[in-house]
C-alpha cells in the first residue's frame, strides 16, 4: 500500500551539507518527498519529539544533539514507505548498517546517525502531525 513516513535529516548531516545526497538516496529508492522544511528545533520541541525515549540514558544527549544545527523534516511517500525508508537508512548504529545505506555512508556515531525515520505506520501518522499540517503535504 502507498504509505507516508516522517523523516528527519539530523544536525550532523545538515552541518556537513549532506541534505541533497541523502535526498537522492531516498528518491532513488522510489520515495517521493511530498513535504519538506528546514527548521531549528528548540530543546522543548526535540524533547517532546523524543519523549518515548525519556527514560533512556542517552535521552539528554540525544535532545541536545538535535538542537545544535538545523534539521530538515520531511514527509516521504511511496509503496511500503515506512519499511523502505528504514531499509535505506540502515541500522541505528552505523557500525551495523548495511553497505550503501545512508547511515553506513554518512553517520558519525550511533547518536549522530544522520537520519531519523518513523518505525511504524501508526507512529508515522503521529510524527507527521507533530511537524506538518495537512495543507503542507502535497502528494
Ligand atoms: P533515531 O532513529 O532518531 O531514534 C532515537 C535516537 O536516539 C537514535 O536514532 C539515535 O540518534 C539516538 N541514540 C543514541 N544512543 C542510542 C542507543 N544506544 N540506542 C538507540 N538510539 C540511540
UniProtKB/TrEMBL annotation:
Its cofactor is Mg(2+). It comes from the Bacteria. The active site is at residue 116. Its EC number is 2.7.4.6. It is an enzyme of class 2 (transferase). It catalyses: a 2'-deoxyribonucleoside 5'-diphosphate + ATP = a 2'-deoxyribonucleoside 5'-triphosphate + ADP; a ribonucleoside 5'-diphosphate + ATP = a ribonucleoside 5'-triphosphate + ADP. It is found in: Cytoplasm. Major role in the synthesis of nucleoside triphosphates other than ATP. The ATP gamma phosphate is transferred to the NDP beta phosphate via a ping-pong mechanism, using a phosphorylated active-site intermediate. NCBIfam families: PRK00668.1. PANTHER family: NUCLEOSIDE DIPHOSPHATE KINASE (PTHR46161), NUCLEOSIDE DIPHOSPHATE KINASE DDB_G0292928-RELATED (PTHR46161:SF3). This is Nucleoside diphosphate kinase.
